[in-house]
Amino acid sequence: MSEKQLRRSLAVLPMSTVIALTDLTARQIRYYETQELVHPKRNDGNRRRYSLNDVDRLLEIKDGLASGMDFATMRKLTAKKEAVAEKKKVSDTHARRVLEAEMQQLAGMRPAHPSLRQHL
DNA sequence: TTTCTCACA
DNA sequence: TGTGAGGA
After folding, report:
1. Cα end-to-end distance, chain A, whole Å
2. Which single residue has its CA nearest the C1' atom of nucleotide C7?
3. Closest amino acid to nucleotide B5 (CA–C1')
């Protein structure tokens, strides 16, 4: 794993930062956690600490939901993203492209390019 | 002051 | 999901 990816995985962001970055409410962010969509770490006084990866996962969830997807679907997609990233050891941005391709299909929008299907 | 958990109208 | 209580 590259140093860049390690930094992206460092959970150092407090709720306030995540809220500013995602435009979600603290309530929603915590709720998504119960839905297994993100897995922030706990530090000092039981406070959640998010990583940059968590943040853009939250952003993906946000517009995924805005595109009409339900939680069950989002959970499958985020789980698949992790599986793909882990299995193929690909970059996060690559895994994100795969995820976006799926979201568009499931949202009944544009189908994924044939070049991306090989990754699904 | 910020975030946490729990519970409810 | 929003909001308020009661703590840390």
Report:
1. 22
2. A45
3. A46
For A12, residues 6+ apart whose C-beta sits below 8 A from its C-beta are A49, A50, A51
Q: Which of A75, A74, A60, A77 is nearest to A22 (CA)?
A: A60
Q: What is the pLDDT of residues A5-63, one digit of tens each?
A: 777 778 889 999 999 999 999 999 999 998 888 999 998 788 999 999 899 889 988 88
What residues contact residue A65 under an 8 Å CB cut-off, 6+ apart?
A71, A74
Closest nucleotide to A48: CA versus each C1': B3
Q: Distance between CA A4 and CA A93 in Å, rounded?
A: 12
Task: Go through the domains of chain A in sequence order and give each one's CATH number.
Answer: 3-117 (1.10.1660.10)
Instruction: Please give, chain by chain, protein residues whose CB is below 7 Å from any atom of strand C.
Output: A 25, 27-28, 31, 45, 65
* A7 CB below 7 A from strand B atoms: no
